[in-house]
UniProtKB/TrEMBL annotation:
Keywords: ATP synthesis, Cell membrane, CF(1), Coiled coil, Hydrogen ion transport, Ion transport, Membrane, Transport. It comes from Rhodovulum strictum. The gene is atpC. Residues 5-82 form the ATP synthase F1 complex delta/epsilon subunit N-terminal domain. F-type ATPases have 2 components, CF(1) - the catalytic core - and CF(0) - the membrane proton channel. CF(1) has five subunits: alpha(3), beta(3), gamma(1), delta(1), epsilon(1). CF(0) has three main subunits: a, b and c. NCBIfam families: ATP_synt_epsi, PRK13443.1. Belongs to the ATPase epsilon chain family. It comes from the Bacteria. It is found in: Cell membrane; Endomembrane system. GO terms for cellular component: endomembrane system; plasma membrane; proton-transporting ATP synthase complex. It holds the Pfam family ATP-synt_DE_N. Produces ATP from ADP in the presence of a proton gradient across the membrane. Residues 91-118 form a coiled coil. It is a peripheral membrane protein. This is ATP synthase epsilon chain.
Length: 136
């Protein structure tokens, strides 16, 4: 019997998968990574992609749209914003996700400006509260 780790994939509405795995290929934000037994502990963010779990029975693929993964020496836990087994995914679901991403992209420009203005105001307030006189 090969070394295994506990794999759990959880989305807000349900536990998608929970099983012993030989390895888990995770779509990390900075690139794919493979979680194996005895892996060094780490936390990473997910990018939209396909997560693949390898077990002694074979492999299973899942769509994930973002979230986080925590990997330890004996466990890989993935908390996904949205996740489905590949066979559950439909053309309509993909089109809906792409439309939502396009809308978020359009709205993000204004949100980034608002967020940076808030950060600037918070920095000035912090400096003032500490007794400094921030210059513009």
């Amino acid at each position: 019997m090969a070394d295994t780790l506990q794999f759990d994939l959880v989305a807000p509405e349900r536990r998608v998968a929970s099983e012993r795995a030989i390895q888990v290929v995770i779509p990390g934000f900075e690139g794919d990574l493979t979680a194996l037994p005895k892996h060094a502990p780490m936390i990473t963010t997910l990018r939209p992609g396909v997560l693949e779990v390898f077990t002694e029975k074979g492999s299973q693929k899942y769509l994930v749209t973002g979230g986080f993964a925590e990997i330890t020496s004996d466990r890989a836990t993935v908390l996904a914003e949205r996740s489905h087994a590949i066979e559950e995914v439909t053309q309509e679901m993909i089109e809906e996700m792409i439309a939502a991403a396009r809308a978020a992209h359009r709205e993000a420009k204004a949100e980034i400006v608002d967020a940076s203005a808030k950060m600037l105001a918070d920095m000035v307030a912090m400096g003032t509260r500490m007794g400094f006189e921030p210059k513009n």
